[in-house]
């Protein structure tokens, strides 16, 4: 099965934490601005990769990096040591972000992407949301996982 098909059928893993929300709450259009509070990669493969990441704000590039991702290693006890590292110096101000990523060797037309504004929000949420992003590599496939948090009155991410 092709990666695009797998991603289309499985979707993105999205975990939302809401405070004081009830099930069945009406949804409203997504907020204009979001904040990326953490962005990292995890490599669970025993081979290295080169990972390309592009972050757009209102359709314009604001962050681009190509990272050499080290392979996972088997430890002495047989456990697999998954490599993980946080990206640095990406914008963290609230904005209209889209994220695109791919592994070297993948066709340039097959980016794994997400537009943070396309996720439904629950009525009464603040003007922006906060997202943590993990670009996971397993079995030669790149997967984008994101989790969203809706800050309460005392927490702005």
Structure in words:
With 157 residues, this protein is mainly beta. It has one domain. Helix content is 5%, strand content 49%. The strands form four sheets. A five-stranded mixed beta sheet has the order 1-13-12-3-8, with no helix packed on it. Strands 5-4-9-10 form a four-stranded antiparallel beta sheet, with no helix packed on it. A hairpin with a 5-residue loop joins strand 6 (73-74) and strand 7. It starts with a helix and ends in an 8-residue tail after the last strand. Mean pLDDT is 75; it is low at 1-25 and 121-125.
Give me the secondary-structure topology.
Elements: H1 3-10, E1 14-17, E2 27-28, E3 33-43, E4 49-57, E5 60-69, E6 73-74, E7 80-81, E8 83-86, E9 97-103, E10 112-115, E11 121-122, E12 128-138, E13 141-149
Parallel strand pairs: 1-13, 3-12
Antiparallel strand pairs: 2-11, 3-8, 4-5, 4-9, 6-7, 9-10, 12-13
Number of separate strands: 13
- End-to-end Cα distance, whole Å, is 38 Å
Helix content: under 10%
- Order of strands across the widest beta sheet? 1-13-12-3-8
Number of helices in the DSSP assignment: 1
Rg calc? 17 Å
* Low-confidence runs: 1-25, 121-125
Mass-distribution shape: globular
- Largest sheet, if any? 5 strands, mixed
What number of domains?
A: 1
Q: List SSEs in N-to-C order.
A: HEEEEEEEEEEEEE
Report the portion of residues in β strands.
over 45%
**Structural class per helix/strand content?**
mainly beta
Average pLDDT works out at 75
């Amino acid at each position: 099965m092709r990666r695009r098909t797998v991603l289309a059928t499985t979707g993105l893993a999205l975990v939302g934490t809401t405070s004081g929300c009830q099930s069945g709450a009406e949804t409203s259009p997504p907020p204009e601005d979001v904040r990326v509070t953490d962005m990292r990669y995890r490599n669970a493969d025993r081979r290295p990769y080169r990972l390309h990441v592009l972050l757009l704000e209102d359709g314009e590039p604001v962050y681009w990096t190509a990272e050499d991702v080290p392979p996972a290693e088997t430890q002495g006890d047989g456990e697999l040591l998954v490599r993980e590292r946080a990206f640095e110096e990406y914008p963290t101000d609230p904005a209209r972000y889209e994220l695109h990523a791919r592994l070297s060797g993948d066709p340039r037309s097959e980016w794994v992407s997400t537009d943070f504004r396309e996720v439904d929000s629950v009525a009464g949420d603040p003007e922006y949301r906060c997202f943590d992003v993990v670009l996971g590599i397993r079995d030669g496939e790149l997967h984008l996982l994101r989790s969203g948090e809706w800050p309460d009155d005392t927490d702005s991410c």
